[in-house]
């Protein structure tokens, strides 16, 4: 990899690039910096303020977050805009091209889940949890289900629609849902991926389940993880 430097006396190096015509290498030039993909992941369900991104990415510093947002804006992956009154807050939002990157997260997520070194106990944001559902849903297991499922994660509400063996998710109110889960994303993941019974999580006060109980039980079985890779 070749490093390019700014002209004009500055000692600050420019972003290192691959200088390779391969489109994959070019994609890494665009989003290969540390934290770039997690920032994009957090915007997959709509715009967020800087403070929201900082909250949902607890390991990132404010300085690095600023750098990544500026870099992704310069490349056209996201935009910064001001919400209309009464909010009048600045938010960051993916462009159409930025949203088109979701398959990258799905492929990387399935591949990463196969890693014997993957630690599932780390921080897990709402976006991580819900993107994992869109990635891991098994069409065969979901066949015949037509339902709306709500999730309340802190101050955020999401509505998932299961139909035709797939799942779509949007940041919407959950009043019309057939089933609503309320808790933390990591707790939801424990039920879906960790096999922790819903009743146990409810008894601990970690999760609340409202609505169709049979649907709730079935929902937790729809997202089988791939088998772990064998380490040589």
How would you describe the overall organization of this protein?
The protein is an alpha+beta fold. The chain folds into two domains: 23-100, Arc Repressor Mutant, subunit A, CATH 1.10.10; 104-219, Nonspecific Lipid-transfer Protein, Chain A, CATH 3.30.1050. The chain has helices at residues 23-31, 36-42, 50-56, 62-74, 96-99, 102-113, 126-136, 139-142, 185-192, 198-203, 213-219, and strands at residues 78-82, 90-94, 147-153, 156-163, 166-170, 179-183, 207-211. Helix 6 (102-113) crosses helix 7 (126-136). It is globular. Mean pLDDT is 92; it is low at 1-13.
Task: Briefly say what this structure is.
By secondary structure, the chain is of the alpha+beta class.
* Secondary-structure element order, N to C: HHHHEEHHHHEEEEHHEH
Instruction: Look at the structure and give the mean pLDDT.
Output: 92
Q: Could you say which overall geometry the principal axes of the C-alpha atoms support?
A: globular
Q: Percentage of helical residues?
A: 25-40%
What would you report as the Rg, rounded to the nearest angstrom? Answer: 20 Å
Secondary structure class reads alpha+beta
Low-confidence segments: 1-13
Beta-strand percentage range: 15-25%
Q: Give the CATH level 1 class of the largest domain.
A: Alpha Beta
Instruction: Report how far apart the termini are.
Output: 29 Å
SS summary, helix count:
11
CATH H-level superfamily of the largest domain = SCP2 sterol-binding domain
